[in-house]
Amino acid sequence: MSEFNDVTIVKAANIYFDGKVTSRAVKFADGSRKTLGIMMPGEYNFDTAEAEIMEILAGKMDVKLPGSDEWQTFTAGHSFDVPANANFGLVVHEVTDYCCSYIAG
């Protein structure tokens, strides 16, 4: 899906890591939500409250998922799942455009 219809966009940005990671919240009529964002090159560590699916729209990153000692590379057109209440690491190699979908649980 290259676009979303009939949504509400939250104007205020989510800003992390001194502005190196930013996103905007997108709310859907059915109550679901996503964030659309950009990550600059760097190393990041995130905590989740909700389960999520991270879709890479452009760029390249290595991901260390919860419970794994292995790094996996993800590029445009690929996605990965992160469980709720977890921590995961990222090494972003180039400016990366992403869409994060939150999974109601």
UniProtKB/TrEMBL annotation:
<comment type="similarity">
    <text>Belongs to the nucleoside phosphorylase PpnP family.</text>
</comment>
<keyword id="KW-0808">Transferase</keyword>
<comment type="function">
    <text>Catalyzes the phosphorolysis of diverse nucleosides, yielding D-ribose 1-phosphate and the respective free bases. Can use uridine, adenosine, guanosine, cytidine, thymidine, inosine and xanthosine as substrates. Also catalyzes the reverse reactions.</text>
</comment>
<protein>
    <recommendedName>
        <fullName>Pyrimidine/purine nucleoside phosphorylase</fullName>
        <ecNumber>2.4.2.1</ecNumber>
        <ecNumber>2.4.2.2</ecNumber>
    </recommendedName>
</protein>
<dbReference type="InterPro" id="IPR014710">
    <property type="entry name" value="RmlC-like_jellyroll"/>
</dbReference>
<keyword id="KW-0328">Glycosyltransferase</keyword>
<dbReference type="InterPro" id="IPR011051">
    <property type="entry name" value="RmlC_Cupin_sf"/>
</dbReference>
<dbReference type="InterPro" id="IPR009664">
    <property type="entry name" value="Ppnp"/>
</dbReference>
<dbReference type="Pfam" id="PF06865">
    <property type="entry name" value="Ppnp"/>
</dbReference>
